[in-house]
C-alpha cells in the first residue's frame, strides 16, 4: 500500500501521503518497544493464546476448498507508472470482471462459533484502478480532509500486483470465517471495474453493522524493509469522522490479529514502522476515519523486498496469512 517517493522522506498509501511514525501508546507499548525481537514474538503469542477460546489448534483450510486464485503466482503483468503518480504499480494482464456487485456478499453456510457474527473484508485497491485514473483521483471527504478516492496499489518487482494479492488473501479469509459460521461480505470481489472509493469502503462495513472489519494490503517500501504491521485508527472527531467509540475495540482487534498473524506465518513485525510492535496508529486513512465499526488495516509484508515478495507470491504462505487473520478475528469476537 505504501510508496517511497522521490520528493519525500515519508511514505504514501492508498489514502495519501504520510510520514512513518512510531506508535506512541500506553505503558504496554513502551515495554514492547524495548523488547528484543525474540521477546516480542513471545509476548504477542502469549497475548494470542491467553484469551478465551484461543488455546484451540489453528484450523486449516481443506485442500479442496483452497482458492484457485493461487495461480496468480505466475502472473507477470507489465509494470507501469501508477495513475496517481506514485511508484511501484503494475497493470494486470487481463481486464477485471465487470459482473454485478452481489458477488461481493457471501452469507454463512452453517453453524459455528461465529454464527450470528458479521465480518466485512476489504481487499485493498482493485486490479482495474489503473484504467480509471479520473475516477480514482477524484477527491472524497475523509473527515479530517479530502483525499483521493483510491489508488492503484503497489506490486512486486516481477509485477505481481497488490490488488491481486489482496483479493486472493481475502477470498481465503472469507472461506475460513465462513467455516466458523460467520456471515462475510467483501467490499469488492473483482466484480467491479474500479474502486470502491475509500469512503464507500467504510460505508459498506457500517451498513452491514459488521462486528469486525479488516482491510487487507501489502506495502511498497524500500528493499530491506521487511515484516508486517497492523494499522489502528487514532481517536478522531472531525467533520464526518468520529472514531472515539471504535478506537478501543479496534486496538483489541488489531493486537489479536497481529499476534495470530505472527504465530501463523512466522513473519516478524515490521522493522521500519511501529517500533517493533507490529502496530501503527493513524488518523489519515479514510477507511478508518469513517468507520463506525471496529476496523483495522493489515500490511502483510513489503512487496518491494525480495525476501518478503517470495512469501507474498506463495499460495501456501497466503493461506497461512489468511489463517492468522481469521484466528485473530475469531479471538476478538469470542473475547
UniProtKB/TrEMBL annotation:
Keywords: Hydrolase, Membrane, Transmembrane, Transmembrane helix. InterPro entries: MurNAc-LAA_cat, N-acetylmuramoyl_amidase_3. One of its GO terms (biological process) is peptidoglycan catabolic process. SUPFAM superfamilies: Zn-dependent exopeptidases. One of its GO terms (molecular function) is N-acetylmuramoyl-L-alanine amidase activity. GO terms for cellular component: outer membrane-bounded periplasmic space. Residues 55-129 are annotated as: Disordered. It holds the Pfam family Amidase_3. The keyword Aminoacyl-tRNA synthetase does not apply. The chain crosses the membrane at residues 28-46. Residues 202-330 form the MurNAc-LAA domain. Residues 90-117 have a biased composition (Low complexity). This is N-acetylmuramoyl-L-alanine amidase.
